[in-house]
Hints:
With 226 residues, this protein is α/β, with parallel strands linked by helices.
Amino acid sequence: MELLIFGHGGAKVLVFPTRDGRFHEYEDLRMTQALAHKIEAGQLQLYCVEGLAEETFYCWWRHPADRVRRYLQYEDYLLNEVMPLMASKNGHPCTIAHGLSLGAFLAANMAFRHPHLFHKLSAFSGRYDLTRGIEDFGDLFGGYYDDTIYFNTPTHFLPNLGESRQLHALRSMDIILTIGRDDPFLGNNHHLSHILRQKGVHHQLHEWDGRAHQGSAWRRMAPLYV
């Protein structure tokens, strides 16, 4: 597993790519240039990881249950290899989950499932329910559903989250969601925002003009929200 690290200090940012992106996508999209002043000033240190979409949610030849099991192996890698690496290299107390498109889902799912590990979530242009078809974006599980999918779908498990340490940690997190007004995932973002409000979880939902589901928009968002 390959990753890239940018910066020498500051808040640690776990960066997830889009569906088709690799660990170097964030640099390829010039997102690192958009954040250069914060990186050079020691305010942010980025850890850009693989997304493994082709082995998990978009691995069409696997049964959906196997796709989610592979995702859990990926999550285990993040929790037990990447995040300890981040902690060993940088003692800053703040850790941020950040992603673009499918990467926004990956960041949000990690942060919502393990909120005690993160101080901030910054998710751009995400879909937070992979079981629902929206426009050309189909149900990634083909109608299959089980408990593992439930517990990895934020808009499914969050409504049933009772008073707990997990919910308390969520209420302490800085949560920022962005979405374009013409983006097909706009309604899903509104739904997630509604769930968070019902749970007393403070957050921000920023709507941008147009679809805003591309690098040029994300480069403008990054200095504002990461």
